[in-house]
């Protein structure tokens, strides 16, 4: 695999600033050079979050003159996106504020400012495209929803199916990061409703329900799984303005339960100590994992607890791992995941821990035999 040359220092500083400080989860798809046998790379492909998907833009610098502003090449399906024309149409005031007018290659924040500026213009471009569609229902949805903060809308590119329009609506205005004590999430955690409408050129008194899906930032799965949330039904004739309060009320209950589950998991982990001893490892923020050291005579082993977000409705998954037996790859021998043991979500944490302790005592001899039989001869 060929290794591309490094970026010149000014360009590298701008890219690092973008990836470190942007509130957007921008990704670098590719770094390469526009010339063969060049000393430096000068081209980037960035994946930029937009409307619950990613748009890919090529940022073209000049390695010989890294202080110059880059060109940006957009995707083929956006060939009529003209950000400079949009800036010019908005007048001299907008032009004077554009990051391209006072470009300073030594300022590491410039690339981030440019990406954010272009993304804002791209947001307006997509709204304009959707607004030009001759579909009464879409025009109504667009006009009633655009005043809502953070909403994004776009045409869904496709060559092999009818036209569709996608809305991305942020749900719950509560700062989710502050709900979890000592949480170190880098980005603001958010939950969105994705709504995809088919484009209909004819008026229908009872249009079909759109496709709807909840989407969250990836790190939020440590708190609760968005896939486990059952969506309320979209009733006939409903619009987004009617549906959103229903789904937001539903989600707020789910978030409250998820926060309460952290406390329940913490109390369960604390209840392990009198029986198993102080855990060797614990997830101190979400209390999703714990590891304890056990022994039976000279045989010592670890028990790893994986505690689901739906605890105590769902019981922990246990994995026993020998500290003395290793497989042919020199890895510790472990048991398959176990969740078939006495359990009731109505038990107090002390009883949950006691029942698991009794189960491990009963299983440890069988696990020791399993380790011996699985060890290389």
Automatic annotation (TrEMBL):
Record-level GO BP terms: cell division; chromatin organization; double-strand break repair
Keywords: Apoptosis, Cell cycle, Cell division, Chromatin regulator, Cytoplasm, DNA damage, DNA repair, Mitosis, Nucleus, Repeat, Ubl conjugation pathway
Main subcellular location: cytoplasm
Subcellular location: Cytoplasm; Nucleus
Superkingdom of origin: Eukaryota
InterPro entries per UniProt: BRE
GO cellular component: BRISC complex; cytoplasm
Family: Belongs to the BABAM2 family.
Name the record gives this protein: BRISC and BRCA1-A complex member 2
Organism of provenance: Zingiber officinale (Ginger)
Upper classification of the organism: Eukaryota, Viridiplantae, Streptophyta, Embryophyta, Tracheophyta
């Amino acid at each position: 695999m060929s290794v591309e040359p490094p970026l010149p220092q000014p360009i590298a500083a701008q890219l690092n600033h973008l990836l470190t400080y942007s509130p957007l989860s921008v990704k670098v798809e590719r770094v390469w050079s526009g010339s063969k046998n060049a000393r430096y790379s000068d081209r980037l492909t960035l994946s930029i979050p937009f409307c619950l998907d990613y748009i890919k833009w090529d940022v073209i610098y000049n390695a010989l003159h890294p202080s110059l502003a880059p060109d940006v090449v957009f995707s083929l399906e956006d060939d009529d996106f003209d950000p400079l024309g949009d800036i010019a149409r908005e007048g001299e005031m907008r032009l004077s504020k554009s990051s391209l007018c006072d470009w300073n290659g030594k300022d590491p924040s410039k690339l981030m400012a440019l990406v954010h500026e272009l993304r804002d213009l791209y947001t307006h471009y997509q709204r304009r495209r959707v607004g030009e569609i001759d579909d009464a229902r879409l025009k109504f949805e667009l006009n009633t929803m655009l005043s809502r903060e953070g909403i994004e809308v776009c045409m869904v590119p496709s060559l092999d199916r009818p036209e569709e329009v996608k809305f991305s609506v942020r749900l719950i205005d509560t700062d989710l990061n502050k709900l979890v004590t000592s949480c170190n999430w880098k980005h603001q955690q958010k939950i969105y409703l994705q709504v995809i409408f088919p484009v209909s050129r004819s008026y229908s008194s009872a249009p079909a329900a759109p496709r709807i899906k909840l989407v969250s930032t990836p790190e939020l799965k440590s708190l609760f799984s968005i896939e486990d949330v059952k969506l309320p039904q979209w009733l006939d004739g409903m619009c987004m303005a009617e549906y959103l309060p229903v789904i937001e009320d539903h989600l707020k209950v789910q978030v409250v339960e998820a926060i309460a589950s952290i406390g329940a998991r913490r109390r369960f982990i604390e209840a392990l100590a009198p029986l198993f001893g102080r855990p060797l490892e614990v997830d101190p923020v979400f209390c999703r994992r714990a590891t304890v050291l056990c022994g039976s005579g000279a045989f010592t082993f670890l028990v790893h607890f994986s505690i689901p977000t739906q605890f105590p409705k769902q019981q922990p998954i246990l994995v026993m791992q020998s500290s003395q037996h290793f497989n042919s790859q020199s890895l510790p021998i472990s048991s398959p995941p176990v969740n078939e043991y006495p359990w009731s979500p109505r038990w107090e944490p002390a009883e949950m821990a006691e029942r698991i302790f009794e189960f491990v005592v009963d299983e440890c001899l069988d696990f020791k035999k399993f380790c011996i039989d699985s060890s290389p001869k």
